[in-house]
Design a protein that fits this description.
This protein is an alpha/beta fold and 369 residues long. The chain has one domain: Arginase, Chain A (3-Layer(aba) Sandwich), CATH 3.40.800.10. 41% of the residues lie in helices and 13% in strands. This is Putative manganese binding agmatinase (SpeB).
Length: 369
């Protein structure tokens, strides 16, 4: 049964926190958080109250793109630090892409040691409910993936014509974001496809016994798609198995980075558009792992890879897709601003944020249309 808006707002007020506050700290990055709050709210005091007041305006908001930060990197496993992505990417968007505007829902409240509630025993869940909500009566979930799915289910129930633009965080977060999106679209009879940019397939069944993580999330959303070929991947290049293995095993479609270089992005996307039209796709969700880009453009990430896509190739593909299909959901994942394995330091982190902001701005604008 559909909840009324006040019930949903109450849940949002408990399970979310103001934008940029998703990483729980006492002193770390306080100046950056304050700068973001000053830009968003015009002041740095009473942010909790101002943010709660802003939630009241969501039903009247004309923006179709609604931003949600998920500051969790517990589902990663190489270099950590993507939990700072939501704070830093928001700031970069405001500084460098000021014309791309969305409604900011805030951040998921994250206990950084947790991933999904199904991995926890009852006693741990009860303790974490007390820590997050000061009560066990509401019985809200406590882990980032579980909270995200719960929030997104209610969001799409309330606002079927709006879409979530998720900022991560590691790529495990795309599991609840896409699952909620696909369920909601399927209930309305809308045929959707997932467009996935990544250096890696993310098609493991499990990684070291964990089935929901950055390397396996794609496998577990296939059941919510109309058919497996509605998952289309761009930029793959770091894989222990060849393309034929992934396509034959899972039935998905892949366009590896070397193919895009050799054949050209325009030819590849034309082929994809033909496929999508043949499959009668109505809408698209774009999940963008920043490591789809070559490490010379985006090295501030947990698993940077060379021989990847250029930002221009990615934007050309997105622009051509957006001409033919509505993009109604999207995410930007794996930007880790404090982590740079290239040893180029701050300069490269700035480059990664700049390219991530360009692509994010395109996706937000496409969603608002």
């Amino acid at each position: 049964m559909k909840r009324n808006w006040q019930e949903v707002k109450t849940k949002f007020s408990q399970c979310l926190c103001p934008p940029g506050n998703g990483v729980f700290t006492v002193n770390t990055a306080q100046e950056r958080k304050a700068a973001l709050h000053q830009t968003l709210f015009g002041q740095t005091d009473n942010i909790q109250a101002l943010w709660l007041d802003s939630l009241d305006t969501l039903p009247q908001s004309t923006h179709k793109a609604v931003m949600l930060g998920i500051s969790s990197d517990c589902g990663g496993g190489i270099l950590r630090g993507a939990n700072w992505g939501p704070l830093f990417l928001r700031s970069t968007l405001m500084e460098q892409q000021p014309n791309s505007v969305s409604f900011d829902l805030g951040d998921i409240r994250v206990i950084p040691h947790l991933l999904h509630d199904k991995y926890l025993n009852d006693a741990t869940i009860e303790n974490c409910q007390k820590a997050l909500y000061q009560s066990t009566d509401a019985a809200y979930p406590v882990s980032p993936l579980s909270i995200t799915e719960d929030i997104c289910d209610d969001f799409y129930d309330q606002f079927p014509e709006k879409g979530i633009f998720g900022i991560g965080g590691d790529h495990s977060i795309s599991y609840p974001l896409t699952k909620a999106y696909l369920k909601a679209k399927r209930e309305r009879g809308i045929r959707t496809a997932i467009i996935h940019f990544d250096a890696h397939t993310d098609l493991l069944v499990e990684r070291l016994g964990i089935d929901l993580c950055f390397g396996s999330w794609c496998t577990h959303i296939l059941e919510y798609l109309p058919a497996p070929q509605y998952l289309i991947q761009f930029g793959i290049r770091s894989s222990g198995k060849p393309k034929a293995h992934w396509e034959s095993t899972f039935g998905i479609k892949q366009h590896w980075a070397n193919e895009i270089r050799e054949r050209g992005a325009a030819a590849i996307v034309a082929q994809v558009i033909t496929q999508l039209k043949a499959d009668k796709v109505d809408e698209l969700y774009v999940s963008f792992d920043i490591d789809a880009l070559d490490a010379s453009f985006a090295s501030a990430t947990g698993t940077p890879e060379y021989d990847g896509m250029t930002p221009d190739e990615a934007l050309l593909i997105l622009a051509e897709l957006a001409k033919e299909f509505p993009i109604t959901g999207a995410d930007m994942m794996e930007i880790a601003p404090f982590t740079d394995s290239s040893l180029q330091g701050k300069v490269s982190s700035d480059n990664t944020l700049r390219e991530g902001a360009k692509i994010s701005a395109f996706l937000i604008d496409a969603m608002n249309k």
